[in-house]
Fold each of these.
Amino acid sequence: MSQIDRLSSLLERFRVRAHLFYAGVLCGTTHFAAQPGRGFLHVLRRGEMVVTHRARSGLARRVKVDEPSLLFYPRPLAHDFHNAPTDGSDFVCASLDFDGGSDHPLTRALPALVLLPLRRVDGLTQSLALLFSETEQVRCGHRLLANRLFDVVLLQLLRWLLDHSDEAELPAGLLTGLADPRLARVLVSLHENPGESWSLERMAQQAAMSRSAFAARFRSVIGETPADYLVRWRLAIALSQLRDGRSVKAIADDLGYRNASALSRVFAQRVGLSPRSWLTQQRGD
């Protein structure tokens, strides 16, 4: 697996942008509101606290955090930090903007909350030392550098999740597939070359498996058929490129569809709107 870069092709095409918004001590109750397309990455540097979530959020109503930890919310989800009223806890916090919002592949592939002690992630100490250094005083470009360091911390967290997928209790999907040595080879190839002709036989050859064994394992680990995954990956790219102003014809050519009409039919079947209607709705929103 060390020879395969499982994340670059994904994150180069669907970016996540970190924005530092707080560094210091939090006292009492702090509310973090849910905003479309936005997640959070909190670093509890010192202290302990209780985190609460709303009813029907899918998470425990009350979670105690009693050691330095990362708290990663990949989807919009309101949460509250409860610290001591005077001697609170020390934090560095960033918001995360996911390209495409809920259409970003990672937002579907991750749990609603990843809570991980800092001591568990190899290599994180050095990154956090630089991050804390940049947030402790105002220097030229410190906010930009802190944003990039948060990007590094996020990448290290994603690496940990891929290497500990069972322990992390990831839902079936993209990350569980990338954590599988044989399926990862196929997924990376699909991500890097979505417009090529991908038959089931060709995918199975990439995984060094028979067609039947590959199809069964893919569905078991990722939760959908290889063909459905490929269509969904291509549509995620199409949505992103439509937002960027590319024509349906140009997108269809890149993604291996015969013509714009073929892409539009698949788009309407999966999204429920034509590309033009979807883009008009997005601009209205």
Amino acid sequence: MILGIDPGLANTGWGVIVQRGSLCRPLAYGCISTTADQDLALRLKGIHDRMAAVVERYRPAEVGVESVYFGVNSQSAFATGQARGAALVATAEASLLTGEYTPMQIKQSVVGTGAADKHQVQYMVRAMLELSQDIKPDHASDALAAAICHAHMRRGRMLEERVAAQRADEGRATPRQRRTP
């Protein structure tokens, strides 16, 4: 099981998928929301506590999380970074393996282009997970996209590791033991 996280101070999306081979299926998804009238520390504690509850309930083995984009609005990026930190502490407490991905990497993995818009990402997440309706809110869809990206990257890393191990084994074999193409 893989947990995906789309961090945000107002809305932190989360989604849990199950990966079997190259197929991914949704298990659950949702959004942790906080309001601007709350104290910042309480908002961050709420994100942490509710993410810890998601981890406790679904017990994922790994996490794919979107990294913070530092564009024009650095204040927004700072708030997102704080929310991301609160969510990551909850996953770290459960000793989950974590992969961090840029928005462009996630879009590339799910849609095939890093320039995809939100609607294209949502459409492809729905299609890849074979869902009959759009995922609401879109923060949950983005979290599922992060989980799918992690599943794809994880599968790619596993294949690379197998090839490297195979090459290392072939390098240690004597000329007589090596297979010819």
Amino acid sequence: MNLNYYAIWRGVHVLSVLLWIGGVAFVTLVLIPALRKGGGDYETFEKLEHRFGNQAKITTQLALISGLAMLWVTDTWARLLNTWWLWAMLLAWAMFSLMLFVLEPIVIHKLLHQRAQKDPKGTLQLLQRLHYLLLAVGLVALVGGVIGAHGGMWF
């Protein structure tokens, strides 16, 4: 039996991105608006979002590993020189990884917790704006990647 390593890595990549960006979409478009409308607060958000945060840490890293593995298996490193969407993917990955592993645990969590004490509704609104930005970056990379992976090299 001959394994198609590229297909395996692509499957891991698609699943990772699906869970990562799909989770961001859920938090942005469903969870935060439901909390805001239902009178939820930042502490409730933290409890509900915590599990997704752990999932996002794993899936972002799997997305990077599988993406690099696909470049390695196909020996197409040169694509990094002429495809904006690969750079968009790397930028999205870097932004999310910076948020998940550095900014959120060291800085953002503390700042949002302090702000939530003074302005609970405003804090959820700020969180939603931040998540919209992250979702937009993720979707641009996702759309570019889909187009690029299906023959849109010029894109």
Amino acid sequence: MNRNTNSRSSTINRKRTFLLGKGIGYSISPQIQNAAFKKLRIQAEYNLLDIDEKKFESTIQKISESDDIIGFNVTVPYKEWIIEHLSSIDQRSKDIGAVNAVTIQRKGILRGFNTDCDGIRATLENLGIKPDSGQRGIVLGAGGAARACVYTLGKIGFDSVCILNRTASRARALANHFRMQFPKMKIDIGDLTEENLHIGLGDCDLLINSTSSSTGKGFPIRLDLTLAQKRLKAFDLGYRSQGPFLKTVLQRGFKATDGLLMLVEQAASSFEIWTGKTAPRKEMMAAAKLALNRK
């Protein structure tokens, strides 16, 4: 009798977290976060909340009025949209101009954070990218993740960054946003074309792919690496499988990595914001690898 009562009580008291985005059925974030909750015996669960843009505002309103949601992650296309619906955001989110983690401090009070840059920094360290002046980078894409990438490169002292994107206005807005923050870092923009990337790789230390191809879609252009220097390193934010971008880079013998470490590290930082506890990173990475093997 007591066991049944305790079971009902734990179910009633279970808190909710989730990933908010569009077209996110591929995500393994639930497996990662639920492994952390289980390890620390926290009565909470993490799920996917896939919504259309038309339902975004009404969904955020419902979330803010909820009694059992402690926080959530935000992904494409809502990392920039979410900001105007939050009560406040931390300084790093202001600097980046995008939010990927939200905590509900109390009903109606939502605070935003950016933990993507934690994952990006951890990945760059793992690649052997050290804080230094004189390094040159190319970032493909101009969405919320690209913003976190450019911010991180500015913070670790890159000399220049070139943003290549299919929509020029988004690349221009991103560049203008960061030129004020990092006046010593030269920020150029260009169309994402085979020719522009080919020329840019002639003097490049780091190439980051944050385009939609990093989530499993085909890479939009042919990747010509004939001008790339041996020192080039590459980072593909995708983590589900080796897409054409990562395969091409690795086949040419360059050091490169996918986005799995970034995914786990940003998840761990989000977990710590929601719970106030140290995230069990070892278990979270193990859960991520297991989920990928099963899918």
